[in-house]
Design goal:
heterodimer; A: mainly alpha; 2 strands; 2% strand; B: alpha+beta; 20 strands; elongated; nucleotide-binding (chain B)
């Protein structure tokens, strides 16, 4: 890192002000506000608030729903991260080896990335439409009557499929870039050392992709936990009923539909702690096992 | 240990580019063959076809008298050393060497003993547990050689293995390679663009240009009797002097552009008036008296290399560049005219149009 000495010592801080003010305004202030209000019982009409200590947290954790929603969120996150990473890796490996039409093939795989989550949700709904959706027809073909918004598991399937579909392109781009950064001669040396392409993939290619995969794992867990909000909202049409929702969606429901600002704040504080723990865990324990060139 | 035969091997890439136009030669068992030529001449493509990393468009490649065109690279019993080492960065030196053997399902004791032997030969014993990232360029290239040696292959293939190293290390590793070849007695096929490397390592050199084999022969064959102007120019440093002219009426002299006649010590059978290039190496020119002089060199500048002195100048009258190499230290003034001659056996005469040798 290059050290630059400024003649006026306050000047560098001045340069940091725009960035810091954005972080303060959009991250630290709301976070602090969430922590504060998680200890209060807010009047729904904004006429006042009462300090209740840890009552909100107690209510959240003892609530019958919370455990099952947390469980679904965990399963949802694991499935979305697993499928979007593995399918993207498979597509990237295939895209890397094709010779003719490689560019158009890649563009077709990448364009979904440009679709906003709510739009992806809308397209997903069309695909899963009760009477017109091709995916519904496909499911019918194998004897599975899909009833999105009515059956808990069918809705969960739709949310997972749409979320995975939306996330594959970004994973694909990163995996493809990672594959192409492996020197050609290293792959060729492996071709001479090992006749089996499958075993070459697991012993040479995948370990060299590990830094990319590690980075994408963090991105995908964050995506599944938080960014799938739009997709879930569209699929449920804002009416959760007894359909599956994730923890982030529950924060929104309790705060803005249920007007329980205190309880909603307590939930978001729990999520904040979860993300913090996750980040520390990933960087402390996993980075060590990953080979960086 | 095996011979390698190429039977009219051609390579055309999918985009229509013809990289190799019919290579036809045999590499003998235990021979050190160097494929040399400028970049893009097809030498690497040829090596990669022997390795199986490129498909053969036409013709046949035989290793140990068996056609290997459709044999998987891992089953050709070859080993390859790459220019940029191509070590597996996530594996230790030991794992790098063991990888190919494990895939052959060799037993652990045998793998360990082979690695130990290779490490001893290449002085890598202290580095076996290190990752390639912790090694210097020379050490990495030794590991790459070790990875080849442990396989006990029929044929070793080298693709410009020393090009990424600095000059001193290159000279050192060149000597080690030569010694290794002697010790193993295996067939080596070595690609380089460096003619000094080719001359110092090869039993026989295959010199290529634009996808064609120009000449095959021992280093001294190529040096003493280059088959074409291309070979004459490529082999030797500083490069051979070439003077352009036309063959005289007597077929034993060359008329230069300014009308002066350059006497040839031999008569040719080519038609008078044919445009020819006369070549003579800088080290084969020597001082001559006025009557036997063939060249008149006007000194331009002098390179003093210690053991040798290279005098650069031009042929008087036609401004054709000429160089003269003398042993020892000399310092002629710029502008001095030196009268020089050469022995008949050291004059190379090529037809200008084709580059073909005439004498």
């Amino acid at each position: 890192m290059k050290r630059v000495q400024f003649s006026r010592p306050l000047f560098p801080y001045l340069l940091l002000v725009p960035q810091l003010s954005i972080i303060l305004l959009f991250f630290y202030w709301p976070a602090a506000e969430a922590i504060r209000s998680s200890f209060y019982l807010e009047d729904p009409f904004g006429f006042g608030s009462t300090f209740v200590g840890l009552d909100n947290y107690r209510d959240v954790i003892s609530g019958s729903e919370y455990g099952s929603i947390a469980q679904f969120t965990l399963v949802f996150t694991v499935l979305v991260a697993f499928f979007s990473l593995s399918l993207a890796l498979l597509l990237a490996v295939k895209a890397d080896t094709i010779i003719r039409g490689a560019k158009s093939y890649r563009v077709f795989l990448m364009w979904v990335y440009a679709v906003a989550p709510p739009v992806a949700g809308l397209m997903g709904i069309l695909l899963f439409d009760q009477s017109l959706g091709p995916l519904t027809h496909l499911a019918e073909f194998i004897g599975w009557e899909l009833r999105i918004g009515v059956n808990y598991w069918d809705t969960a399937t739709a949310i997972i499929v749409i979320s995975v579909w939306k996330q594959i392109p970004i994973n694909f781009i990163f995996f493809l870039a990672g594959l192409q950064s492996i020197p050609r001669s290293v792959r060729e040396a492996a071709i001479i050392d090992d006749p089996s392409p499958a075993s070459r993939f697991f012993t040479i290619t995948f370990p060299l992709l590990a830094p990319t995969a590690f980075f994408l794992l963090i991105i995908n867990i964050t995506y599944a936990l938080f960014d799938t909000f739009g997709i879930i909202d569209i699929v449920l049409k804002g009416e959760p009923g007894n359909n599956p929702i994730t923890l982030v969606y529950k924060v929104f429901l309790d705060g803005f539909r249920g007007n329980d600002l205190g309880g909603s704040s307590a939930q978001s504080v729990i999520l904040m702690v979860l993300v913090l723990a996750l980040t520390v865990f990933q960087f402390r324990f996993m980075e060590r096992r990953v080979h960086y060139n | 240990m095996a011979n390698v035969t190429l039977d009219t091997v051609r390579k055309t890439y999918p985009n229509g580019y013809k990289a190799v136009h019919g290579a036809d030669f045999q590499i003998r068992d235990g021979e050190f063959i160097v494929l040399v030529g400028p970049s893009g001449c097809g030498k690497s493509t040829l090596l990669r076809m022997i390795a199986g990393l490129e498909d053969v468009t036409d013709g046949e490649i035989l290793i140990d008298n068996a056609v290997v065109n459709d044999v998987d690279p891992a089953r050709r019993d070859i080993a390859m050393v790459f220019q940029n080492y191509a070590l597996y960065p996530h594996m230790s030196v030991r794992q790098n060497m063991a990888y190919g053997l494990k895939n052959q399902r060799m037993n652990k004791a045998e793998i360990a003993s082979r690695i130990e032997e290779a490490a001893r030969t290449l002085r890598l014993e202290d580095y076996l547990e290190r990752k390639p990232g912790q090694l210097s360029g020379g050490q990495r290239q030794r590991v790459a050689m070790g990875r080849a040696i442990v396989r006990h292959p029929k044929v070793f293939l080298f693709d410009e293995p020393l090009s990424n190293l600095d000059a001193k290390l290159r000279t050192q590793l060149r000597a080690e390679l030569k010694a290794l070849h002697k010790r193993l007695g295996a067939t080596f096929v070595y690609v380089t663009h460096d003619q000094v490397e080719a001359m110092s390592l090869a039993d026989r050199i295959i010199i290529m240009s634009a996808g064609q084999v120009e000449q095959i022969g021992t280093p001294m064959d190529l040096y003493l009797r280059p088959a074409s102007r291309f070979v004459a120019d490529f082999i030797g440093s500083p490069a051979m002097n070439i003077v352009h002219g036309a063959l005289g009426e007597d077929q034993a002299s060359v008329t230069l552009a300014d009308g002066t006649a350059l006497p040839l010590p031999i008569a040719l059978e080519t038609a008078p008036g044919t445009k020819v290039d006369v070549g003579v190496r800088p080290e084969h020119l020597h001082a001559a008296d006025a009557t036997s002089a063939q060249f008149n060199l006007t000194v331009d500048f002098v390179e003093q290399l210690g053991a040798d002195t290279v005098i650069h100048g031009y042929q008087k009258g036609v401004e054709n560049p000429l160089a003269l190499r003398l042993t020892g230290i000399h310092a002629p003034e710029a502008g001095t005219v030196l009268t020089l001659g050469s022995d008949a056996e050291h004059l190379h005469i090529f037809e200008s149009a084709t580059g073909r040798r005439l004498n």
